[in-house]
Amino acid sequence: MNPDQRPKALLRAKISSLGTYVPPRVLTNADLEKMVDTQDAWILERTGIRERHLVDKGVATSDLAVEAARRCLAKRGVSPDEVEAIIIATVTPDMLFPATACLVQNKLGAHHAWGFDLSAACCGFVYALQVGTKLIETGAHKKVLVIGADVMSSIIDYTDRSTCIIFGDGAGAVLLEPAAEGETGMIDFMHEVDGSGGEFLYMPGGGSLHPPSAETVAQKMHYVHQDGQAVYKFAVRKMSEVTENLLARNGVEGKDLGAFIPHQANRRIIVSTAERLGMDSSRVIINIDRFGNTTAGTIPLAMQTALEDDRLHKGQLVLLASVGAGYTVGACLLRWEM
Ligand code: UT7
Known about the structure:
By secondary structure, the chain is of the alpha/beta class. It is built from eleven helices and 13 strands. The relative contact order is 0.19. The site of oxa(dethia)-CoA has 20 residues, from helix 2, helix 6 and helix 8.
C-alpha cells in the first residue's frame, strides 16, 4: 500500500466469543464469619455477596487469564496462533514486569500476538474493550483478545473485615473481530477519570513511591485500603451519570436495552443505577452473590451469567458500566452479535 494512504472508513468491531474462568475453591460468608468479626446477614444485606472463588497458593492472574482465553478461542474455533493482540486489564499482575500479557501470550501459544497490560482497576475491562475495538476499527488487526483478570486475594488483608468480604478472584476473555455485513457490534464508549479520588481506594506499597521493604509489609501497605462510604457515594452518582449520558448521546433509552451488564461491586449500586435507567430486574445482570467483586473480571463473568440464564441474545442492545479505583468511570454501548 502507498504509505501516504489510509483506509477512508472505519470498520466495525464486535465481540465474537466469550470465555470465563474462576478457580474452584469457594470462600463463603460462613467461612468469613470464622476469620473476622462479621455476619452472613450483614454481608448479604450491605453487598449482595454470598460467596466468592479464590485461587490456591501458586495460582496467578496469568493462569486464570489463560484458561478464560482458551475457552473463548475454543468456542469460536480460533487457534491461539491466529490471535494478533492481547490486552489484559488487571491490577494484580503476576509481577510488575514482564506484563501479564507477555506471560499469557507464551502460555497460550499465541505466537503471533503482541500485547500489554492496562491498569484501570474496576474499569479495566471497559477501557481495554475500547482500545481493542479501536485496533479492529482502524483495520490494524482482525483478532484481538481482551481479558479482564484479577487475583484480588493476593492483595487483600484477611484480617480486615471492611475489604476481605468484598473481593474474589476470576477472569473473563472476549475475542474482538470485524463485524460482518449487517452487524453493528461495538457502538460507543464514555470514560472518565477523577484522580482526586485516588486516596479512597488504593494499594500504597510495592511501587516506586514505597518500594517493598520490611517496613511497608509491617504497615500492611501491600494490601487494598478503601474508604467504602466515599467510594460508594461516588459510584452511585457516577454510574447513573455515565450511563444516562452515554445513552442520551446515542438516542437510546433504558427501555431499548436488552441487558444492563454492570461491574459487580455492590448490589445496591447496581440496583440504584438500574432504577434510574428505568430497567426492570429481568434485564439487569447480577452475579455478585456467587463471585463477589473480581475487579477487571466482573463484566465478562456477568456476560457469561447472562448467556447461561438465556438473557443475552443476538441483536440486543447491551450497556456495560463501571466505577472503581482511580477514580475511574467507564461505560460501553454495544449490540450483542453472538
Ligand atoms: O469495585 C471497586 C469499587 N468499590 C466499591 O464500589 C465499594 C463501595 N462501597 C461499598 O460497597 C460499601 O461501602 C461497603 C460494602 C464497603 C461497606 O458498606 P457500608 O454500608 O458503607 O458500611 P460502613 O462502612 O458504613 O459500615 C457500617 C457499619 C460500621 O459499624 P458502626 O460504625 O456503624 O458501628 C462498620 O464498622 O458496619 C460495620 N462493618 C461491618 N459489620 C459487619 C463494616 N464492615 C463490616 C463487616 N461485617 N464486614
